[in-house]
Amino acid sequence: MSKIGKMPISLPTGVTATVTSGEIEISGPKGKLKFQFRPEIKVVVNGSEIKVDRISETKFAKSLHGLTRSVIANMVKGVLDGHEKVLELVGVGYKVAKQGENLVLNVGYSHPVVINHIPGINLDAKENKIIVTGADKILVGETAARIRRVRPPEPYKGKGIKYVGEYIRRKAGKALKAGV
């Protein structure tokens, strides 16, 4: 039995879960999320607890057991508290501004880069930080990754868009390498 998969998920007050054929819907104060799970997995809601079990004992079903439980637990946390990723702009002249619902990034290109609003995601800009928040953890992470791809941090000076707390491995430049 999967260590993670066999743990029950407790539903806090204000969060409801309904299971229909192959789909679970979790709703709470921050929104409503749906997830279609595989037929090898069985999800049961008992009062204020969600239990995830597997129907078959195949290797594929075993691999889905813990994954499904983790996804549902992230959905419960997302509709209750939300998820957040914080990105940081590092570099001289690099800046971010909020323009309506969109973000405008000036990160060393000859033109500003516009990040359009994505439904279900809140984008906020404070100083040289971008805060991505939302109920869906997968969508928050994907949006943050797409913003980071605009100008990933480079290894020589460390300039670019990075996650707060991310360590950038630095390389020695030509002058240092040659021993000058």
Automatic annotation (TrEMBL):
GO terms for biological process: cytoplasmic translation. GO terms for molecular function: rRNA binding; structural constituent of ribosome. Keywords: Ribonucleoprotein, Ribosomal protein, RNA-binding, rRNA-binding. Residues 12-82, 90-163 form the Large ribosomal subunit protein uL6 alpha-beta domain. Signal peptide: none annotated. Part of the 50S ribosomal subunit. The gene is rplF. The lineage of its organism: Bacteria, Candidatus Curtissiibacteriota. This is Large ribosomal subunit protein uL6. It comes from the Bacteria.
